[in-house]
Amino acid sequence: PETDADTLRTPIVAVLGHVDHGKTSLLDRIRGSAVAAGESGAITQHIGATAVPLSVISEIAGELVDPTDFDLPGLLFIDTPGHHSFSTLRSRGGALADIAILVVDVNDGFQPQTLEAIDILKRTETPFIVAANKIDTVPGWRPNENSPVQQTMESQSERVQSDLNENLYEIIGELSDNGFSADMYWRVQNFQANIGVVPVSAETGEGVPDLLTVMMGLSQRYMKEEMAIDAAGPGVGTVLEVKDTQGFGTTLDAIIYDGTIRADDTIVVGGLQGPIVTDVRALLRPRPLEEIRTEQTFEQVDAVAAADGVKIAAPDLDGAMAGAPIRVIRDRNRSEVIAEVESE
Ligand code: GTP
Ligand code: MG
Predict the structure, then answer these.
(1) pLDDT over 80 at 6, yes or no
(2) pTM value?
(3) How far is CA 131 from CA 134, 182, 206, in A?
(4) What are 12's strand-pairing partners?
(5) SS3 letters for 264-322?
(6) Ligand 1: does its nearest atom lie under 6 Å from the Cβ of 79?
(7) What is the C-alpha separation between 162 and 319, in angstroms, rounded?
(8) Which residue CA neighbors atom 5 of ligand 1 most closely?
(9) Model confidence at 141, in pLDDT bands (50, 70, 90)?
(10) CA 40, CA 26: separation in Å to the nearest integer?
(11) Beta partners for 118?
């Protein structure tokens, strides 16, 4: 209910890692979509957002998850670009995150943007797990579509198992070189003290049940207090992208991470020429499981509560900036809110 002073919001999960290590593909696997295939040059160039409800997570996780163990509504995934030129977008994604998945190609190991991502996670003190992706490319691998990872690993030949383990221990070694004690996720008891490594394949879905189970468990266990928000309070968010939307002119793709934004709110948005004060004209919400970057069919809604992706239509947004803060004024003092946006 909207008046509940203590609602648990969706945790924001940033997906970070080196270019081509499979961030978008992993999200595609979870969404059942093909966003990566449609990207120009197969490179992600913007931050994306996708809300994945608990029902979908528990369906994919299967026997590994008991949905009644969870009272968080799901996970909001933030896709980030791995290409070296998008370092601002990576930090922005990292700063928004409550938790993160660091995607590492199990054959390629640590690469420059893997290290850059680690630095962001350290700086922002974001807890994370490592998805050691592309396990299906180990020579001789026999895929078991969507299988929990320990099951499929045990079903491989000894040769394949030892090749994979060698690569996995290299990643664990790299994490240790960077100051993190890490281990295979099923051996980790305390995910705050140790980084769990989850072997996965975005191509075959192997290990994806494990990845989602660990993320839900981690958020439920360690994030719950931080997720308690005043859902009816004035919304706070960040601009992901400023772009034209047919019929609405210049709009903002945004993440709301606290409170609620309503269709009749006045908002303050950071702009190139200083804060923009404007009245929301429409709130457009992507369907669940749709990437806000590529969604075509938006639903016009009266309100959006944290944490969620939303497209905001309003006059005077031409000067708005990606990365800028968004704040709802509602019953707050207008100049105080403007000052907050200015100083952020
Ligand atoms: P950027 O966003 O540009 O940083 O790349 P990304 O990390 O999102 O990688 P993307 O998902 O675009 O995948 C890069 C390539 O690796 C694509 O050709 C994918 O099909 C392939 N790929 C990703 N995951 C897997 C996997 O688990 N197995 C195999 N065999 N290929 C994969
Ligand atoms: Mg990508």
Answers:
(1) no
(2) 0.95
(3) 9, 12, 11
(4) 76
(5) CCEEEECECCCCEEEECCEEEECCCCCCCCCCCCCEEECEEECCEEEEEECCCCCCECC
(6) no
(7) 55
(8) 20
(9) very high
(10) 18
(11) none
Q: Residue 286 — φ and ψ, nearest 5°? A: -70, 150
Q: Provide the pLDDT for residue 225.
A: 85
Q: From the CA of 111, which ligand is nearest?
A: 1
Please, which pLDDT band fits residue 3 given cuts at 50, 70 and 90? very low
Strands across the sheet containing 182-184: 48-53, 74-79, 12-17, 99-105, 128-133, 195-199, 182-184
| Structure tokens, 86 | 């998008």
Q: Within a 10 A sphere around the Cβ of 56, how many other Cβ atoms?
A: 18
pLDDT in tens, 147-192: 999 999 999 999 999 999 999 999 999 999 999 999 999 999 999 8
> Please, are residues 102 and 172 in contact by the beta-carbon 8 Å criterion?
no
**122 C-alpha to center of ligand 2: Å?**
22
